[in-house]
Amino acid sequence: AAHLIKSGAEVFGLVRRRADGRIPNNILRHQIEDTLHCIQGDLLDLSSLLTALSASEPDYVFHLAAQSFVPRSFESPLETLLVNAQGTANLLEAIRIGKTSPVLVHAGSSEEYGLVFASERQYAAFRLQYPNSTPERVSIPEIPVREDNPLRPMSPYAVSKVQSDYLVRSHYHTYGIKGIVARSFNTEGNGRGTMFVTSTLARQVARIVRGLDDKVVIGNVNVFRDWSHVNDMVRGLCLIAEKGIPGEVYNQGSQRTNSVVTYLLMALDAANFRVDRVRTFKNDKS
Length: 286
Hints:
This protein has 286 residues and is of the alpha/beta class. It has helices at residues 2-6, 25-29, 46-56, 70-75, 77-97, 120-129, 156-175, 197-209, 230-243, 260-270, and strands at 12-15, 37-40, 60-63, 103-109, 178-184, 186-188, 224-225, 227-229, 249-252, 258-259. The protein has a 4-stranded parallel beta sheet, with helices on both faces. It has a two-stranded parallel sheet with strand order 1-2. It has a two-stranded parallel ribbon with strand order 6-8. The chain starts with a helix and ends in a 16-residue tail after the last helix.
């Protein structure tokens, strides 16, 4: 919203009603509360979506709303499926019923790819353990991940995103809704939710700097992720909206991976902490 407003666009945002009546923090942080037109609504309320589309008459719709925290999807799979899949279906139907004709950019996810094979050895070991698993590989290695890579979702969140992804493309082919799918890899920035690993690490390092703590507590630091800054991703979404082909899928990412431990070391370095050595405690490696 902030990027589009700076570009001179008139921006409407769908926000859920809050009992306390407060404006969401990120809107205040970007100081756009006086220029962003907020419309109360909910993805699960079709009538509110119809009202929002009628009021805004949009040229473009950026569909970013979701239950996007993967661990929560394991705890609440039905909520995740309802919000992400049914919510997307509601939005598509609101566009169809309301007879509007915006370009819809749907925020898919790299999580849709799920299990990606980097070597024949890895693939053979997997097939030995799960002989009936599908879909089959097309080629090895599957890195860098292409848009036509097989989808092997590994969480309820990923499954919900696969379903909403197909809903968007199906509505294009069936009803002519100009939907485009953007499968984004990890998007980071200072508005990131506090439960995500990058925010968790940054917050803990900040507490050490302030003398409030003397340690960082984190899970698996050997996980690799493709991280991009939110500003780059926003520019990418706008390019997809302007130049993307309806019915198509576009990956968004840096084509570079880093481990969680690398991110932690960078956070410590930014806080002027010198790291002399790195050691693990469970498998005798140092």
